[in-house]
Write a structure and sequence with these properties.
Layout lengths: L10 E5 L28 H13 L4 E5 L9 H9 L6 E6 L4 H11 L3 E5 L5 H7 L5 H14 L5 E6 L6 H11 L4 E6 L24 E4 L4 E3 L8 E2 H4 L1 H11 L12 H4 L2
Parallel strand pairs: 1-2, 1-7, 2-3, 3-4, 4-5, 5-6
Antiparallel strand pairs: 7-8, 8-9
Amino acid sequence: MFDRFERRIDYLRISVTDRCNLACAYCRPMPAPPPAPQEALLSFEEIAAFAACAAELGIRKIRLTGGEPLLRREIPVLVSMLSSIPKIADLSMTTNGLLLPRFAAELKAAGLRRVNVSLDTVDPERFRDLTRGGDVREVFFGIEAALAAGLTPVKINCVVAESPAEPDAEAVSRWCSHRGLTPRFIPRMDLSEGRFGVVHGGTGGDCRRCNRLRLTSTGLLKPCLFDDLSLDIRALGHREALLRAAAGKPERGTLGTTHAFHSIGG
Ligand code: SF4
């Protein structure tokens, strides 16, 4: 499908939970808001049915996000349901890596292609500060598990304040090059201020060629991260919600005042 600005919309990011086992300062406010109630979450059957409808309309890439997607119970079952949709050519996940040692092999067997792992610093103390208590060694173990399971290429998502020339980013870059990994540098975003930039080494943040839609874990379809339009797929029906999303997608992002990163997965 195409939007009003002739951009091909072929990428769907699905947030499967707003819960996370880290609390990155730029993402999760404190005190942490209560997670969405279990009964409000889309079931795996609802997500798979929506993805199948989206594939009929031209979606070819799906990325699972959160919060932390590996906290959603039995997530390999959902991966298996999505990977069996014939027109979906690429199924990936963005994770903080902490639970990858437990799930990597099972995710691969279920049909997951590859993962992006978040790593903003390789310095243990800085990591503990940035994530409010995390242990960077657990991310390293997660990356190793993803490589061992063949969830490749493993890409590293590194959030920067301004540029990849910052000390933490340069250290992540060196760490990646020693391991043959590809870092991507994501400028820190602020929904309420409408601040965002193009991802270095990726396609995100470039409105001119934006190809994505986002689905929240409670069934709101969002044509743009920096816009308040949300379409309830349960109320509208899958096809109608998708068509309205493509028709309502703005030319470029402005502000996002009705949602937060931790519930939409960036
Ligand atoms: S701000 Fe909106 S249109 Fe621009 S890249 Fe992000 S999601 Fe796409």
